[in-house]
Amino acid sequence: MGAVNIFRLSALLLAGGQGSRLGGRDKGLMPWRGEPIAARLTALITGVASEVLISCNRNQDIYQQWADQVILDDEPDFPGPLAGILAGLRACNGTHLLVVPCDMPQVDAELLLLLVDQARSLPAKVCLVRAGEQWQPLLTVIPSALLPDLQLAWSLGQRSPLRWLLNQPHAIVQLDLDDPRLCNANTPAQWLMES
């Protein structure tokens, strides 16, 4: 009798940045269609994951209402998204970690399910999203078993999520270049369109 493939998904919302293009505002708390974007995105990921983690480096008391666990980077001064992913892999209970950035407000359940289904069918691989030829490295599913590799890469100075992810066995969810679900909202004007 063969081994049973267990797939248990945790999810990580990346909200730990310093919001430099937003004048220092906390991007995860920016309003989107009448609610903080963190509330909208965690509601989405709750539909596909058994555990919700939020990586944030400030306003932890606010984020706690949407998370099973709030996690902080191990290093001060906003060391970047790979630090949040590393903390998420250390904290998660799942066999896989779905990573969703807080600056992609138009992500929908259909796209998350597509990514998760790909990961379930290829459990040993990182699953990445690419739009045309542009990678979206912060929307991904990572096997938890890759934690030791990421810890080593981090200790050796790796800080690029894309570089580290592409160095792993990976599968690709290919989307059109102009897929609106992948629009990054990084400036006040982009947030005001839907606030």
Treating each run of at least 4 consecutive H or I residues as one helix, how many helices? 7
Oligomerization status of the protein chains: single chain
Name of the CATH first level: Alpha Beta
Shape: globular
Q: Note the main sheet.
A: 7 strands, mixed
Q: Please estimate the helix content.
A: 25-40%
Element string (H = helix, E = strand): EEEHEHEHEHEEHHEH
Notes on the structure:
With 195 residues, the chain is of the alpha/beta class. The protein has one domain (9-192): Spore Coat Polysaccharide Biosynthesis Protein SpsA, Chain A, CATH 3.90.550. The protein has seven helices and nine strands. The chain has helices spanning 37-46, 60-63, 81-91, 109-121, 147-155, 161-166, 188-192; strands at residues 9-14, 31-32, 35-36, 51-55, 69-71, 96-101, 126-131, 134-143, 170-175. The chain has a seven-stranded mixed β-sheet, with helices on both faces. Strands 2-3 form a two-stranded antiparallel ribbon. The protein is globular, with a radius of gyration of 16 Å. It starts with 8 loop residues before the first strand and ends with a helix.
